[in-house]
Design a protein that fits this description.
The complex is a heterodimer of chains A (166) and B (175).
Chain A lengths: L3 H12 L4 E4 L5 E5 L4 H10 L7 E9 L8 E9 L4 E9 L5 E3 L8 H12 L2 E3 L40
Parallel strand pairs in A: 2-5, 6-7
Antiparallel strand pairs in A: 1-2, 3-4, 4-5
Chain B lengths: L7 E3 L2 E3 L2 H10 L4 E5 L2 H10 L22 E5 L7 H9 L6 E5 L1 H5 L20 E3 L6 H17 L8 H9 L4
Parallel strand pairs in B: 3-4, 4-5, 5-6
Antiparallel strand pairs in B: 1-2
Helix pairs in contact in B: 1-5, 2-5
The chains are: A alpha/beta (166), B alpha/beta (175).
Chain lengths: 166, 175
């Protein structure tokens, strides 16, 4: 039985102070590490015999505009298919230099997932084979899901202010 | 019963205006291209099915090739990445061609007022009939189709070479 306590114990045995902020929202073990450690931690989680988190469920980014110095978070969700246990890893990075090592050597799906995180948040994945926009128009010069831009389309001139609550 | 068109007839012959005859023939055999992208496309499938039959109006043969159709019905949300593709499909149609924008997203971007959705297909191609609704009922799509039929019946055969039409196409960057 792979429980959250076993995973937490193995991680702190191996990495000590570099993994921190262990939480269990809704039962899923969540922890944080430095941005330079993300590959080491994920390789350990993937290749260890007992842990065996071989399936990358999802890779997304979050923008926290109030955390100066650590605005962009990259969130990895890993799953062990045999025991159906999930775990979540967060790395925080600075918005002025959002470099994170790419996981495409470890997990093949992270190729497109990292392209999506780049397209919408501007996270630069170092070592990615083809880091270009995946869903937005290629000529777009900003990163839409950062919380710096108005949500509405700005080129419309026919919107009635009364109906839009202004 | 439908009345016969205005004209002069006699024993074994009938004359009428050429534009009216051509308009009558065209309007009752429009071949649509269903450019169905999202939910309005499902409503269109219901419109083509047996209950709200669109084939009664002559639109029996749907073609997915723009080279063989008269009317392009754009049904659904068009993203900004899709806009040049839609324009390419429109350019491949042969004159005379008509465009029908079905649904709120095709008319004006609908509820998707955001960075990725084109706010109305009339930003890239000239539109003849707009059918509002989210999604419009099949009766609404049929009503839009009937308005297109009225436009086709009443169209002058010189319209496509006129200066006004050329200016309209130029404003979209289409030669």
């Amino acid at each position: 039985m792979l429980t959250n306590e076993i995973i937490k114990q193995r991680l702190t045995d191996k990495f000590g102070e570099q993994v921190r902020h262990f939480e269990e929202p809704y039962g899923m073990l969540t922890f944080e590490t430095d941005r330079d450690n993300n590959l080491k931690v994920m390789t350990f989680l993937k290749e260890d015999e007992e842990l065996g988190f071989t399936y990358l469920n999802d890779l997304t980014a979050v923008h926290y505009p109030d955390n100066t110095g650590q605005e962009l978070a990259v969130v990895y969700m890993l799953q062990n298919i045999r025991t159906s246990t999930r775990v979540r890893l967060k790395v925080f990075t600075d918005i002025t230099q959002p470099d994170v090592f790419t996981a495409s050597g470890l997990f093949a799906t992270s190729n497109w997932l990292e392209r999506e995180a780049y397209d919408f948040y501007g996270v630069n994945f170092v070592g990615h084979p083809n880091l270009i926009r995946i869903m937005n128009v290629d000529e777009m010069d900003y990163f839409p899901q950062r919380k710096e831009y108005p949500v509405e389309e700005q080129t419309r001139i026919d919107k009635d202010d009364a109906m839009f609550g202004r | 019963m439908v009345e016969p068109p205005q004209g002069f007839g006699g024993d074994g012959f009938f004359t009428m205006k050429l534009s009216e005859a051509v308009g009558l023939a065209r309007s009752n055999s429009l071949w649509p291209l269903p450019f169905a992208t999202s939910c309005c496309g499902i409503e269109f499938m219901a419109t083509m099915a047996a209950h709200y039959d669109l084939a009664r109006f002559g639109a029996e043969r749907l073609s997915f090739s723009p080279r063989q159709c008269d009317l392009i019905m754009v049904m659904g949300t068009i993203a900004k990445k899709m806009a040049p593709i839609l324009k390419q499909v429109y350019l491949q149609m042969a004159e005379p061609r008509w465009v029908m924008a079905v649904g709120a997203c095709a008319c004006s971007g609908g509820i998707f007022d955001s960075y990725s959705v084109l706010q109305g297909i009339d930003q890239v191609i000239p539109v003849d009939v707009y059918v509002p609704g989210c999604p419009p009922r099949p009766e609404g799509i049929i009503d839009g189709f009937m308005r297109i039929q009225d436009l086709v019946k009443a169209e002058s055969i010189r319209r496509r070479e006129s200066d006004e039409y050329k200016a309209l196409l130029n404003s979209y960057g289409i030669q």
